[in-house]
Amino acid sequence: MLAATVLLSFLLTALVSWAIAAGASATVDWPGAGQLLRGFGGGLLIAATWGALGVLLGTALRSTALPIGLGLVWVLAIENLVVNVAAPLLGAFDAAQAALPGVNAGSLVAALAGDHAELRTPGVAAIVDGGQAAWVLAGFLVVFTALTGLLLTRRDVT
User: Fold this and answer.
1) How distant, in Å, are the alpha carbons of 6, 12, 87, 90 from that of 55?
2) Per-residue pLDDT tens for 92-139?
3) What is the pLDDT of residues 16-27, one digit of tens each?
4) Within 13 A of 115's CA, how many CA atoms are on the CB side?
5) 3-state helix/strand/coil string of the chain
6) Nearest 5 degrees, angle CA 133-CA 137-CA 141?
7) Taking the model in full, what pTM does it have?
């Protein structure tokens, strides 16, 4: 389902980009197949990581509303406070932010956008390099999935 959602977002974005270019009488500069595959893979990795966290929280808390709320508080409040307030002031937070999932997701997007891209989207910044971001997100994906499996087998399977 995540792969279909990422693919659909790519298709819709391409359609809107084409419409804007046509409306402005500009030529469309489409990315190559390699760039599209890297972008799709990056988008799928980010979506799968956050999805796995949601499944872990939903399994652990046995509900839907609280995990959604906790996920939003984490992304919108806690990570923003660490990155925008604590990291510039305290060296420990500056180093620790490189291990946060949101920071790595934004850094992966920044790396996939390229060196010359204008990054104006909140949360998208090259805080760490793209390789580290991909590995950290993959690690989170494995940990979240393993913890969910462990929780299911320990508590929910008889």
Assistant:
1) 18, 27, 29, 33
2) 887 888 888 888 998 899 898 887 777 777 667 788 889 999 999 999
3) 999 999 999 998
4) 0
5) CHHHHHHHHHHHHHHHHHHHHHHCCCCCCCCCHHHHHHHHHHHHHHHHHHHHHHHHHHHHHCCCHHHHHHHHHHHHHHHHHHHHHHHHHCHHHHHHHHHCHHHHHHHHHHHHHCCCCCCCCCCCCCCCCHHHHHHHHHHHHHHHHHHHHHHHHHHHCC
6) 170
7) 0.84
* CA angle at 1 for the pair 47 and 109, rounded to the nearest 5°: 25
